[in-house]
Amino acid sequence: MAAFVELPQGSWWDWDVVSCNAGELRLGAGTDLAYHHGLELVFHDPVLIRCPAAFQDPVFRAPSPDEVLAVTRQLGAAPPLVLAFEADAGGTEPATSLIAAGGVEVVLGTVFRYWRDELEPGQRLAPWVRPS
């Protein structure tokens, strides 16, 4: 149930929520999210999300037994995956985050945050990008 995510090599210090719906939570990461991101954590079937919309330099870890117990009590059953992390969300102390979901997938590839006509293999547009 507890999870630890190992990220591939790269500069993944700038993060935000790319999309969130009943079936998936998608976090994007890169060195500067103004134009694109190169890494996504895709949480399938999220049932509990407690994280800021944007944050920097997360430290991912397995959840504590107390965090797992609190999530289990709140949901009424133990979810397949619980992930915890601390990150800089602009406050005076790191923000503690918890995500409970059916699973998590690490996806690499350039995701542009602005319209582009020509995409190379492995590149795509962020879900909110529309033609100019």
- Summarize the main sheet: 9 strands, mixed
Helix content: under 10%
From the helix content, strand content and strand pairing, which structural class follows?
Answer: mainly beta
Spatial sequence of strands, sheet with the most strands: 4-7-6-5-1-2-3-8-9
Q: Per DSSP, what share of the residues sits in E-state strands of 2 or more residues? A: over 45%
CA-to-CA gap between the ends?
A: 44 Å
- Number of separate strands: 9
Give the H and E element order. Answer: EEEEEHEEEE
Looking at the structure, what is the overall shape?
Answer: globular
Poorly predicted ranges: none
Count of domains: 1
Radius of gyration: 15 Å
What's the average pLDDT?
Answer: 94
Number of helices: 1
Give a nutshell description of this structure.
The protein has 132 residues and is mainly beta. Helix content is 8%, strand content 47%. It starts with 13 loop residues before the first strand and ends in a 7-residue tail after the last strand.
What does this structure look like?
The protein has 132 residues and is mainly beta. It has one domain (14-125). It is 8% helix and 47% strand. It has one helix spanning 65-75, and strands at 14-21, 24-30, 36-44, 48-50, 54-61, 81-88, 95-101, 103-112, 124-125. The protein has a nine-stranded mixed β-sheet with strand order 4-7-6-5-1-2-3-8-9. A hairpin with a 5-residue loop joins strand 2 (24-30) and strand 3 (36-44). The chain is globular and about 50 Å long.
